[in-house]
Amino acid sequence: MDEELKNNLLKTGTTILGIVCKDGIVMASDRQSTAGNLVMNKNSQKTKQINDYLLISGTGMVSDIQRVEKLLTAELKLKELKSRTRPSVKQAANLLSNILYSGIRQPSMIPTQMGSLLGGLNEDKKFELYSIEPAGSVTKVEDYDANFGSGMPYVLGFLERQYKKDISLEEGIKLAIESIKSSTQRDIGSGFGIDVFTISKDGIKKVVSQEIQSAYKDE
Fold this sequence. Notes:
The chain is of the alpha+beta class.
């Protein structure tokens, strides 16, 4: 593969984030998909509900993200059918970790390139958030994380100053919106919209769906 083309394909941009609150988890993302300097899609849904109790946000190659989401959903269903018990959020995160780890260890022209946040609600109504980096390592998130999206520096810098332990879900939603706004103002790989979800004892809900519109004004 031509080196310049290869480098352009590997440059992707995204903002994803997860915030742990006292009464739930907030997960959010922007909507812009890029390939190098080109905007490919203005309405990418980067945070998705993959079953009744799990949300996943992905950053990296779009094809890898779509494939891994489908594979994870299928593997979790198989595991549930075989064991007759619902996998926990931690088990789902470890399964995702194994999928990603295998994707970079197997011989391939382009290895799997995907980082992710996985949040969910266990059967005991306890919620958890995990960050799985592209090489497969798993970290339980106790406060907030943005994984390895291009908007990560802006999000983490903002939350470092604004986040407080045991904030409410409503406060977390406001922080998530402001975090995405911060990244879309400065990160060329993020933009065009905001999607925010919550995970609580009441289940998974999409609470914010906003489109960013450009407007030209006379000076």
